[in-house]
Amino acid sequence: MLSTDLVLSGPPFVHVPLFDRLVPARDTGFAGLTLTPGDIWTLENEGIPAGDIRQRIADHGLAIKEVDCIAAWLPSQRTQTDGSPLASLLRSLTPERVIEKAARIGAPSVTIVEMQGASPSRDEAAEAFAAVCDIAGEHGLNVDLEFLPFGGIPDLASAWAIVEAADRPNGGLTLDSWHFFRSGSSFELLRALPGQRIHTVQINDAHALPADDLMHETMNARLLPGAGSFDLVRLIQTLDTNGCEAPVSVEVFSADIANRPMADAIQGWADAAHTIIAQARNPT
After folding, report:
1. pLDDT tens digits, 152-211
2. What pairing do the DSSP bridges indicate for beta strands 248-250 and 198-203?
């Protein structure tokens, strides 16, 4: 069954210094955090070693669950010439840099994504994914492939085909509810997957009708679990049934987050997630 110790996703709060997230996360009911590579680089550049960062987080009763993400792992991603700030950032998130930071900070896993418009064949992606898994394996880390409906690995079927073909014991999936439902991925396939290969689950919700621009929607218009149209109860029941024991991360990108104090922005996030999990396990 899915863990009931909730994780607060880091990417929606890159505008908040990492140490300023710790008290709000703890006080609103979270047991862990995901970090971005930038969280670690920023503090180390200020002269704070990784061991001290890890200890500060632990002193607040929080665990580091993942570093999110590696974004330049396919050959075509590394050679793109787009000079936009986002593209430049994504190209900097190489396996070597991110895995080294994740190992230094004591994270158990790293997320890997395709969001630069590359459309690799299954064999090309599997070979590249296997190579990342081998680097991470030297540090005892898992690698979790997250599919994105607007990226080159758009759904659960394509992501699982890559993980399966790569055939690495530390390779698995990140399952984000927004990506699962907006991609039209199959519950039947999800039910058939070995649950232990789903290393991370991220939950959130959304309105019934998708926006024309999915990238804009996913970064600006997610809702709290239970506040939208996604059948999160069925999703949790399916993951419980196939033996998934992954931590559950709440990841709600919303346009108003940057304009509110973090403690206010995440008020109710953990309660909403616990409520959905309870509904899934106690349908009556």
Report:
1. 999 999 999 999 999 999 999 999 999 999 999 999 999 999 999 999 999 999 999 999
2. parallel
- Domain positions in the chain are 6-260
Q: Which long-range contacts (CB under 8 A, 24 or more apart) does 169-172 make?
A: 169/137, 170/133, 170/136, 170/137, 170/141, 170/142, 170/143, 171/129, 171/130, 171/133, 171/142, 171/143, 171/145, 171/197, 172/142, 172/143, 172/144, 172/145, 172/196, 172/197, 172/198, 172/199
The alpha-helical segments, DSSP class H, found in 242-282 are 262-265, 269-281
Spatial distance between the Cα atoms of 63 and 42, rounded to a whole number of angstroms = 19
**Residue 49 carries which side chain, given as an amino acid letter?**
P
DSSP letter at 193?
S
Tell me the HSE value of 123 on the side-chain side, using a 13 A CA sphere: 0
pLDDT at 79: 75
Between CA 274 and CA 284 the distance in angstroms is 16
Residue with the two structure tokens 């009911």? 29
Binning the chain into helix, strand and coil, the percentages to the nearest 5 are: 45, 15, 40
> What pLDDT is attached to residue 192?
97
| CATH annotation of 6-260 | 3.20.20.150
H/E stretch holding 217 reads helix 214-220
What is the per-residue pLDDT across 58-102, written as a single tens digit (0 to 9) for each? 999 999 999 999 999 999 887 776 778 888 889 999 999 999 999
**Spatial contact of 112 and 152, defined as CB atoms under 8 Å apart:** no
